[in-house]
Amino acid sequence: MLRRFSSIPNWSRYTQSTFAIPARRPTPCLFNQLWFETDVRDLLSTVNVPTLVLAPRGPTDADWKAAKYVAEHIPRARLVQLEGQDFPKWLGDQDAVVREVREFVTGVRHDPEPNRVLATLLFTDIVRSTEKAAELGDRDWRDLIERHHETVRRLLRTFHGVEVDTAGDGFFATFDGPTRAVRCALEIVRALAVRL
After folding, report:
1. What pLDDT is recorded for position 180?
2. Which of the residues in the chain have pLDDT under 50?
3. What phi and psi values does residue 172 have, to the nearest 5 degrees?
């Protein structure tokens, strides 16, 4: 088994940083050797709490057989075979480990919820605004933009839109669906046609 760990990239660096004890250099390796050579088989039947045993699907049956043995000799143990060959499991698919542990502890399977939202985007812009600004002059153009922004913001609130950005005479807003966005857009056109 130790030979298998030595083939994992950076295993030596991992063990030295994880198990580093201020002592002679070989201490982490001795600690690992002690860990792998300790025989706990006689103690398994004395474990008196629910136990989750996780095992990888490796190229050999050795890890699976060892995990199966452990699970069979601990009362109420649950054995779960995980995809992948990584052992210890925290080096591999941690999401799978967390899902199994969460289910074991809570009794409920929590599959990730899809993070999807139906959103509708609304962009507004005053047509030929540059010509209109030149025609009105700075002061009147500023007044027109203030009225425009006031009207658009009021209608966004009415139709539950969210203002994302404003640039000059244009708005960028989001809605939780197309119906409110279309109704808001139509109302903006109607209201501004009267005011502008």
Report:
1. 93
2. 1-3
3. -125, 120
Burial class (CB in 10 A: 0-12, 13-18, 19+), 128: exposed
Q: What is the pLDDT of residue 26?
A: 61
C-alpha count within 13 angstroms, C-beta hemisphere, residue 59: 2
Element (H, E) at 10: none
Q: What pLDDT does residue 192 have?
A: 87
- Residue 107: left if φ>0, alpha if ψ -120 to 50, beta else—which one? left
Give the strand pairing for 170-175 and 77-82.
unpaired
Secondary structure (DSSP) of 80-126:
EEESSS-SSGGGS-HHHHHHHHHHHHHSS--PPPP-----EEEEE--
**The amino acid at 174:** T
Distances (CA, A) of 149 to 26, 131, 152: 72, 19, 5
